[in-house]
Design goal:
Elements: H1 10-33, H2 38-74, H3 79-110, H4 113-140, H5 142-148, H6 151-165, H7 171-179, H8 184-192, H9 199-218
Helix pairs in contact: 1-2, 1-4, 2-3, 2-6, 3-4, 7-9
Amino acid sequence: MAGAGQFFDAREMYMLHRMFRREFSLMPQVVQSSGNGGRERVETVAGHIDFVTNALHGHHEFEDAQVWPILRERGAADIVPHVRHVEEQHEEIERAVSDLDESVTYWRDHATAGACERVSAALGRMLPVLLEHMRFEEANVVPVMEKCITLDEWNQMIQVSAAEHLAPTDMPLMFGMTMYEGDPEIVDAAISNMPAEIGPIIRRTAAQAFAMHAEKIHGTATPPRSTEV
C-alpha cells in the first residue's frame, strides 16, 4: 500500500460511481421484467434495491460528514459553491430515495402491476438526478479531493465508514459489486486497506458473491457495464 505523502486516488471514487451508475440504470428493466414473477421474485428484486440504496445512503453520509469539511478547510475558495451544490444534490437524492423506498414497500405488500409501475416511476424520477450528481461531482469536486486528502487520511476514513455502514456479512457482495468495473490496481489497494482478518476473505469471495447475485437479479453473472447502459 502506498504510504504517507501521497494523495487520494480518484479511481477509487470512479469505481464506486460506476457501480451506482450500472446498478441503478439496470433497475428499471429488472423491475419491469419482475412484474409478473410472483411475490418471491418481487422480494428478491426489492432486496436488491434496498441493498444498493443503502450503499448509496452510506456513501453520501460519509461524504457529508468526512469529505466536504476537509475540502472547505483546505481547498481554494471556489470549491465552496461546488460543495454546497453537491450537498443540495444529496438532499434531493435522499428525497428521491425515500420516494423509491415507499414505492418498494408498497410493491412488496401488493405485488401488482400497478405497484410495479409505481416503483418504475420512482426510479425514473431518481435516476437522472443521481446521474447528474455523479457527473458534477466527478467534474468539479473529485479533482480537488486528489489535492486535499492524503491517501492515509482517505484509508482511515474508509475503514471507519465501512465499519459504521456495512455489516461484515454484506462486505463480499458489496465489494464484488464495486470491483466488477474496478481498476485492478485500485481493487488491490482497497483490499490491502481492509483489516488483516477480512482482506483475504474478500479477495477470495467477492467476485463469486457478485456473480451469484447478478445471476439472480440480472439473469447473468456478467451484466452490462456502466458504459453499456
